[in-house]
Amino acid sequence: MAKGWLKAIAETPKLKSTVRIVGLVDVNPQAAQALAQAFDLTDVVIGSSLEAVLVETRADILFDVVIPAARHDVVSTGLRLGCHVLSEKPMAVSLEEGSDLVRRAEVAGRIHAVVQNRRYISGIRRLRAFVDSGVIGDLTGIHCDFFIGAHFGGFREAMDNVLLLDMAIHTFDAARFVANKVPLAVYCHESNPKGSWYGRDAAANAIFEFSDDVTFTYRGSWCAEGANTSWESQWRVIGTKGTLLWDGNDTFSAHRVVGSDGFLRELEPVDVPHLSDDARTHGHASVIADFIAAIRDGSKPETESSDNINSLAMVFAAIESARSRQRVTLQNRTV
């Protein structure tokens, strides 16, 4: 992931002229050195001690791309030493640790935000704008399918709750953004299908209750071979007057009711407008740009931890529901 972040900075002129990489930290310094060479970073401090490198470089910002288990210590160190911190998702491995990081950022007077890059792509922005337009009436449901046979190797294949914690959080966060509603409760079932190359929990089905009687459902698997969906999931967004479909790639289609008679009402196609090529449709680059803009003007980035913890709460409520086989409410689960 560090390569993805550095590539976004290097290939975005505004970021390249704004951000100067002053240090790279890795438990294996040779890996950091290789990364520095790959991106022609000749004047950087390299080390295995985060605190030592931050003290030496007097960095303003810490980009946190460590594995989830190390996140709390890394973010805490960065905040304690005066850095604004932009973290990979998930923001924590427990809701308690996530809440603690939100409080630490508040005490430090620094911004801690999370890379939910999926909500910074044009497709998700188009969904939100279309729902907000009211063309298909009041939102009643969002339904997402995610099925990919992903052979990562490494730590993911040994993770507990791997689909929910490492991937479904993208769709959960995007659905919360598109709906612009509050998640209230969830019922979830996790499984590890026959033939799975993951240790456990590679598939999940979840039903979320959002405010204003909106339902969000998620069906997903990371060991489903034969018909991969988009990484963004396939979406069906239903309103009181019509439905929007998105394949997660480039295909949008929408229809709304225009007739008032008959068993099946007459429909008409509806255009799903393209968005202008603004600064919030370029994935990682847009997340980083939003983060830096917030530091400069004192605003809150869209994925600040105090908001993103609501998406994390969805994940952990789903995990609890899967373990207990009970409906779980999300009340009092965030700071």
Notable characteristics:
335 residues, alpha/beta, Rossmann fold, Dihydrodipicolinate Reductase, domain 2, 2 domains, 3-stranded parallel sheet, 36% helix
Question: How would you summarize the topology of this molecule?
Answer:
Layout: H1 2-10, H2 13-16, E1 23-25, H3 29-38, E2 45-47, H4 50-57, E3 61-64, H5 71-80, E4 84-87, H6 95-108, E5 112-114, H7 122-133, E6 139-147, H8 162-179, E7 183-191, E8 203-210, E9 214-221, E10 234-239, E11 242-246, E12 252-257, E13 267-270, H9 284-297, H10 305-324, E14 328-329
Parallel strand pairs: 1-2, 3-4, 4-5, 6-9
Antiparallel strand pairs: 6-10, 7-8, 7-14, 8-9, 10-11, 11-12, 12-13
Helix pairs in contact: 5-6, 6-10, 7-8, 8-10
Question: What can you see in these coordinates?
Answer:
This protein has 335 residues and is α/β, with parallel strands linked by helices. The chain has two domains: 2-117 and 284-304, NAD(P)-binding Rossmann-like Domain (Rossmann fold, 3-Layer(aba) Sandwich); 122-273 and 311-329, 2-Layer Sandwich (Dihydrodipicolinate Reductase, domain 2). 36% of the residues lie in helices and 22% in strands. It has ten helices and 14 strands. The strands form three sheets. Strands 13-12-11-10-6-9-8-7-14 form a nine-stranded mixed sheet, covered by helices on one side. The protein has a three-stranded parallel sheet with strand order 3-4-5, sandwiched between helices. Strands 1-2 form a two-stranded parallel ribbon. A hairpin with a 3-residue loop joins strand 8 and strand 9. Helix 5 (71-80) runs parallel beside helix 6, helix 7 (122-133) packs across helix 8 (162-179) and helix 8 (162-179) crosses helix 10. The longest helix has 20 residues, at 305-324. The radius of gyration is 21 Å and the shape is globular. The model has no long low-confidence stretch (mean pLDDT 93).
